[in-house]
Design goal:
Elements lengths: L1 E9 L5 E8 L3 E8 L4 E9 L6 E8 L4 E8 L6 E3 L6 E3 L9 E3 L5 E3 L2 E3 L3 E7 L2 E6 L3 E14 L1 E3 L2 E3 L19 E8 L5 E4 L13 E5 L3 E15 L2
Parallel strand pairs: 8-9
Antiparallel strand pairs: 1-4, 2-3, 2-5, 5-6, 7-8, 10-11, 12-13, 13-14, 14-20, 15-16, 16-19, 17-20, 18-19
Length: 234
């Protein structure tokens, strides 16, 4: 199978185009199209197998900037395909992996008269975070952290611990936008409530700092901070 890629761009800054593609078995087919005018139409032909998915990267670059576009190209279409090992099935595409039911990504999956519109791609525990990654782009995180603090800073008629730096947890990666973060306390020795630390709010990479508030002073008060976070990973 031969794949034919036609590139057409009209830019005023970019003057060098390069194309590379990667598949499961090989890497680094590379072609550069250079020009000195503001508009360029070019084509590149790569030999490739219809039995592998491809990831094509188009790079536009000049002396000032670089930009990348990644295009995914699926396998050849087949209604049903068995992996060469006899231990994998492809539906609507070539079976590329062993021990896998691999369904063409543009097809819907219907179960009990309902079309499945989203599904969990990955879940587990990493860096003390329990995580669940959804295909739609949603990521759910949860974590717990035990901290012992003194709550002795007067704040009106209340007392606070002051900002607790240990409560500023780092996410597994940088999210695409600000997250929904819910933090609650499980008191171990003293009652209390949690609030955001003054001037130390969260970001797309960290939860931000929190502090404990009580009606009375407390020494060596132990609390478990419970984090529930929802954000967009893509």
């Amino acid at each position: 199978m031969t794949l034919y890629f036609l590139l057409h761009c009209e830019f005023y800054l970019f003057h060098i185009f390069s194309v590379s593609f990667w598949d499961i078995l090989s890497f680094d087919y590379f072609k550069t199209l250079s020009h000195s005018i503001d508009s360029k139409t070019g084509s590149v032909i790569f030999p490739a197998s219809g039995e592998s998915s491809l990831e094509v990267t188009v790079t536009l670059r000049d002396a000032f900037n670089t930009s990348h576009v990644v295009v995914s190209v699926g396998t050849a279409f087949v209604l049903l395909d068995c992996h060469s090992s006899g231990k994998g099935i492809g539906v609507g595409k070539v079976a590329e992996l062993q021990n896998t039911l691999d369904v063409f990504p543009n097809w819907d999956f219907k179960y009990i008269n309902a079309v499945m519109t989203d599904f969990v791609m990955e879940q587990g525990i990493k860096n003390n975070w329990h995580y669940r990654k959804w295909y739609s782009g949603v990521m759910e995180l949860s974590a717990r952290k035990s901290i012992t603090v003194d709550v002795k800073n007067r704040w009106g008629s209340l007392f606070t611990s002051g900002p607790i730096s240990e409560t500023d947890l780092t996410y597994l990666f940088v999210f695409k936008e600000l997250l929904t973060v819910i933090v609650t306390l499980s008191p171990i020795t003293w009652a209390g409530i949690v609030m955001t630390g003054s001037g130390q709010v969260g970001s797309t990479s960290k939860t931000g700092v929190f502090e404990v508030v009580r009606g009375l002073e407390a020494t060596n008060a132990t609390y478990v901070f419970n984090y529930d976070v929802v954000g967009k990973w893509k």
